[in-house]
Amino acid sequence: MPHVERGMSVGLFGGSFNPPHRGHELVAEIALRRLGLDQLWWMVTPGNPLKSHSELASLEDRVAMSRALAPGPRVKVTAFEAAHGLRYTAETLAFVKARNPGIRFVWIMGADNLRSFHHWQDWRTIAETFPIAVIDRPGSTLAYLSSKMAKTYTHARVDEDDAATLASLNAPAWTFIHGPRSSLSSTAIRGERAAAGTPVS
């Protein structure tokens, strides 16, 4: 895991990043700025348990592509989940929390993931481990009203004008951040490259 100092605010941004693209970069930039983070960990996962791995580029390639795209020195690209055999986000958050006392973490995800968040393994545990920042994505803006997670934790929602306070709050606490959106998606990019006979990496 990246080096941190006690008292830091750190965003955790996980995904398969297959491949990483400008939309991921934009989420990272918005999170750093709006949440007032000291660092953002861009966590490249071995694979998403809810998705097929048939088109998954190697972890090494996805890490390299993510490092090439990461916006600035405060973004730390890491793949520690693979080294420790972590498969599910709830496991990862418990692992991170146990090894980093005194660090204020925020889980960061795109709004497209909010719609299906209740299908994730131990999703309530995730929501009650670290505060969550949901960054707007095209076609998913209303997820903050309609998703099961949003309805279950409506009492814990923080106004986005107060997003900079999120890292100091105890979970459950979450906010939905509007802002610039990119229409890019890894699925679409893979489809375009497959049609052109170009490898993902």
Automatic annotation (TrEMBL):
It comes from the Bacteria. It catalyses: nicotinate beta-D-ribonucleotide + ATP + H(+) = deamido-NAD(+) + diphosphate. Pathway: Cofactor biosynthesis; NAD(+) biosynthesis; deamido-NAD(+) from nicotinate D-ribonucleotide: step 1/1. Its EC number is 2.7.7.18. Signal peptide: none annotated. It is an enzyme of class 2 (transferase). Residues 12-190 form the Cytidyltransferase-like domain. GO terms for biological process: NAD+ biosynthetic process. InterPro entries: Cyt_trans-like, NadD/NMNAT, Rossmann-like_a/b/a_fold. GO terms for molecular function: ATP binding; nicotinate-nucleotide adenylyltransferase activity. Transmembrane segments: none annotated. Keywords: ATP-binding, NAD, Nucleotide-binding, Nucleotidyltransferase, Pyridine nucleotide biosynthesis, Transferase. Catalyzes the reversible adenylation of nicotinate mononucleotide (NaMN) to nicotinic acid adenine dinucleotide (NaAD). Belongs to the NadD family. This is Probable nicotinate-nucleotide adenylyltransferase. The lineage of its organism: Bacteria, Pseudomonadati, Pseudomonadota, Alphaproteobacteria, Hyphomicrobiales.
